[in-house]
Inverse folding.
């Protein structure tokens, strides 16, 4: 079975590296993205099974990334977990399956990712 692909969109390099490391250690194939400009295009190119998305990003904020993901048929149903310290700014869309506040608990992050990847797998089956 191919490894599930997760795109982590986080401008803080230390946090992006941490999330990428943790998810990679769990057996996921992870791609880190530093800003919102190319986030949706990278999620499309990588055929992401899940996107972890910060809201406050340089170039294009997380809400704009959500909108862009929702406009493309290939990414319209890609689940998104929002990880942000600025949750009041979030415009919820059907793709947003979970919301985690920064600072987050590592076990909450890993459990949320596993649950959404399993849920997506069940929806396909």
């Amino acid at each position: 079975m191919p490894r599930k692909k997760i795109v982590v969109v986080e401008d803080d390099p230390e946090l992006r590296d941490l999330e990428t490391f943790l998810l990679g250690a769990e057996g996921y194939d992870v791609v880190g993205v530093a800003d919102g400009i190319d986030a949706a295009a990278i999620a499309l190119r990588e055929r992401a099974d899940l996107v972890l998305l910060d809201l406050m990003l340089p170039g294009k904020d997380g809400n704009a990334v959500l909108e862009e993901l929702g406009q493309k048929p290939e990414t319209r149903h890609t689940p998104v977990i929002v990880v942000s310290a600025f949750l009041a700014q979030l415009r919820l869309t059907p793709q947003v399956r979970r919301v985690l506040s920064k600072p987050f608990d590592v076990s909450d992050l890993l459990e949320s990712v596993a649950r959404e990847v399993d849920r997506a797998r069940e929806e396909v089956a």
Summary: The two ends are 14 Å apart (CA to CA). The beta strands are 5-9, 29-33, 50-53, 80-84, 96-101.
